[in-house]
Amino acid sequence: MNIGSAITKALTNTQIITAIVETLGTIILGFYLRKRQKLSADAVKTLTTITMTVALPLLAFTAFLTPLSHQTLIQSLDVLVWGLLIYIILIILMPLLYFRYASGTKSVLGILTSFGSTTFFGMPIVGAVYGAKGVMYASVFNIGYRIFLYSYAYIKMSGEQFRGEHIKKMLLNPIVLATFIGLFLWLIQNSIPQVSIDHSQVAFYRIDITVPWLFTWLKLLAGLASPLAWLAIGANLGQMSLTKALKNKTSWYYSFNKVILVPIIMAGLLIATTTFHLLPVDSTALATMVIMMATPVATVAVNYAMAFNRESLLAANASLISTIAATIALPFWIIIIELLKELPIFK
After folding, report:
1. How far are the Cα atoms of 97, 238, 288 from residue 113, in angstroms, in the given order?
2. Alpha-carbon radius of gyration of the chain
3. Distance of CA 13 to CAs 36, 48, 347, Å?
4. Distance CA 226, CA 131 (A)
């Protein structure tokens, strides 16, 4: 692999440059609007609500409106397994990074490092750079994330037992519902009544083909996910106290582990197992999972810390610094991924 030519290729790729400018530019715009009081705190909450209950669920659902192929099915199963395995690995390894801290702090930092904002921060970026296929992989990958976030992370942070109400809360999450419905319909599309459209046989619910005007509208709403999420991220940064967070060395150490070390672990595992044909992934799956791991701390994990008074100030500082770090690191990770995609194993 010629690294120089690969870097040139990445830096001259219009799609990549566009995605980076759109992401960083919109986050900066959100920060500016909040600082200038053009966006109120209530407006930021509204942006987040629309993103989480409308745009992201539709982004996940419409990504599954695509033909079912054997190769994509096998790859999706591998991504699903990776989505479970990586959190088991992180749950075991991440607390070891904080062995010098008190037991309670070590436990909290381990959880905050294991769980990133894969949905709110990661999926819009994946969609912007890697399209519907990337979103589909991200949705499948997130199944494991949701399982461990609403079970293990909750139990560790709250000290309570896992109950049925937690399963109900997880399953009724709009994004989870959209993912499972979309995945189910994608899997059974060749086994249910077909309709003939332009000499092609497709499932009657493949509205991307059977009812294109409805699909176009849903895609329009799904397309709101990225700009609204990025505006909200920037606005949230604009309403947080940066001075104290910058002085917190633990937040910087945490952010390095979350935004740099965790995606390196993910990339290393994927390269190694693909090389030896154990849960191999294609270049889009590699890119998707590395980007999902290079996200700042999960908002739900921070909410756990605050709700149960588990290092709540540290969690807030870690959220702010890791979001800034992830935003700055994003262009570099996209370029690194483009370099990794040039490896022979992904050809």
Report:
1. 10, 23, 18
2. 20
3. 34, 31, 18
4. 12
Tokens of 223: 């397309």
Ordered by where they begin, the domains of the chain are 3-342 (1.20.1530)
Tell which residue, 284, 237, 285, has the closest CA to residue 86.
285
Residue 58 has pLDDT above 80, yes or no: yes
Residue 107 tokens read as 């436990």
Q: What's the whole-number average pLDDT of the chain?
A: 92
Q: Does an H or E element contain 24, and which?
A: helix 14-35
Question: Any long-range contacts for 326-332 (C-beta under 8 Å, 24+ apart)?
Answer: 326/121, 326/255, 326/258, 326/259, 326/294, 326/295, 326/296, 327/23, 327/24, 327/27, 327/233, 329/259, 329/260, 329/294, 330/20, 330/23, 330/24, 330/125, 330/294, 331/20, 331/24
Question: Is the model's pTM score more than 0.70?
Answer: yes
The SS3 of residue 297 is strand
For residue 203, give the H/E element and its range. strand 200-203
Element (H, E) at 196: strand 194-197
| Closest of 114, 169, 168, 177 to residue 143, by C-alpha | 177
pLDDT of residue 200: 82
What is the model's pLDDT at position 167? 78
The C-alpha atoms of residue 161 and residue 36 are separated, in whole angstroms, by 44
The torsion angles phi and psi of 342, rounded to 5 degrees, stand at: -80, -10
